[in-house]
Amino acid sequence: MRVAVAFDHRGIELRERLLAELETLGHEIVDLGTDAPSPRVDYPDKARELAHALTSGAAERGILVCSSGVGAAIAACKFAGIRACVCHDVYTAHQGVEHDDMNVLCLGSEIVGKELAAELARTFLAASFDGGERYRRRLDKIGEIERGGRVHDVSVPIRPDMHVYRGNPGVRLERHESIADGAHANISRLELGVHSGTHVDGALHFIDGASGTEELPLDALLGRAEVVDASNIDGHLDEAALASLALPVAERLLLKTKNSALWELPEFSHDFIRLTGSGARYLIERGTRLVGIDYLSIGDEEAHKELLGSGVVAVEGLDLRGVEPGSYELICLPLRLEGSDGAPARTILVR
Questions:
Q1: Exposed (0-12), middle (13-18) or buried (19+): which is 194, by Cβ within 10 Å?
Q2: CATH (domain of 270)
Q3: Phi, psi for 224 (deg, rounded to 5)
Q4: In 32-163, alpha helices (H)
Q5: What is the pLDDT of residues 94-126, one digit of tens each?
Q6: Is residue 174 part of a domain?
Q7: Both 212 and 141 in a single domain?
Q8: 29 and 141, same domain (yes or no)
Q9: Are residues 315 and 235 in the same domain?
């Protein structure tokens, strides 16, 4: 096995013994230093070198040594693909590989002696990942964390046969110029209502003379949001219905209701769950800055006027079918349309 080893200026106390052990075991050593107590070497620099050796394929596993092992492990784990841990006992040295696919062993030169360090390295390198379903599942979740979380696109695709609210303009997408007809490029024309698909309402939608969507507060459209399971509510979302949900304290609430099933229908249905005026006032009193729902309208006329008049952002047409209730990072970016009462928005949740 190709094993990268790295030491800071205090970790070199274990250097000779570890290198000798690796040679005895027949491993190919990728020596990243250091080999002297001065000048001082910062452990994050050695962690970076060792991480690069693993992620580039120059080495398969690594051993990183500082005075306690703690700083080395903290630094190494900042690099994607690195699973480092301080192991000062034999059980952890092999269990970390078997269950967690640990690929970097971190040791403290002032914590363990030379012979124990050699035994820990030997145990670490002899272990192999179990590969069981539960271990892979957990590693996949770690991978999602490294990538910044799993991304859920909760936007409704824009297409000519999509659901459109009763009385609203439909969607028309056609080719204006085409390569097939001799043009240098394909250029299409899109015609649609501003409340098509996933979109955000401007105050102008229900309040004549109010601001358009260009005035929507971006800070309300970005940040921590709670997806709330409201699928047990059969009627409209009034104050009593919302109170029964034990809503979490959050500035942004996305309501997942029975509406989600309506996206499966071939065309728009007006039989959907929506907020009432009392429900809107309940959310406003709780300090809600943004509320979203899983169909094409957030509520009745009274609810719209209450929300929009109070500066609460209303996001409509969310597709929450593949999203579990809980906390997410919301990114909702409506088109920057000036003077518009609504704006289509690409909306994602990250967890």
A1: buried
A2: 3.50.30.50
A3: -65, 130
A4: 43-55, 70-76, 90-100, 114-126, 133-146
A5: 999 999 999 999 999 999 999 999 999 999 999
A6: no
A7: no
A8: yes
A9: yes
Locus of tokens 């942004």: 252
Burial-class residue 62 by CB neighbours within 10 Å (0-12, 13-18, 19+).
Answer: buried
Q: What's 56's domain CATH number? A: 3.40.1400.10
Query: Can you read off the two tokens belonging to residue 273?
Result: 């769950």
* 170 occurs within a structural domain: no
Q: Which amino acid is at 244?
A: S
DSSP, collapsed to helix, strand or coil, labels residue 314 as strand
- Least confident among 54-58, 142-146, 240-244, 286-290: 142-146
Residues 246-296: tens digit of each pLDDT: 999 999 999 999 999 999 999 999 999 999 999 999 999 999 999 999 999
| Residue 168 located in a structural domain | no
Catalytic (active-site) positions: 66, 99
With vertex at residue 212, the alpha carbon angle to CA 302 and CA 269, rounded to the nearest 5 degrees, is: 50
In a domain, residue 259? The reply is: yes
**Same domain as 271, residue 128:** no
3-state secondary structure of 230: coil
pLDDT for the residue 149: 75
SS3 158: coil
**H or E segment and range at residue 5:** strand 2-7
Q: Retrieve residue 109's tokens.
A: 């030169």
Rg, the chain, Cα only: 29
Range of the domain at 77: 2-146
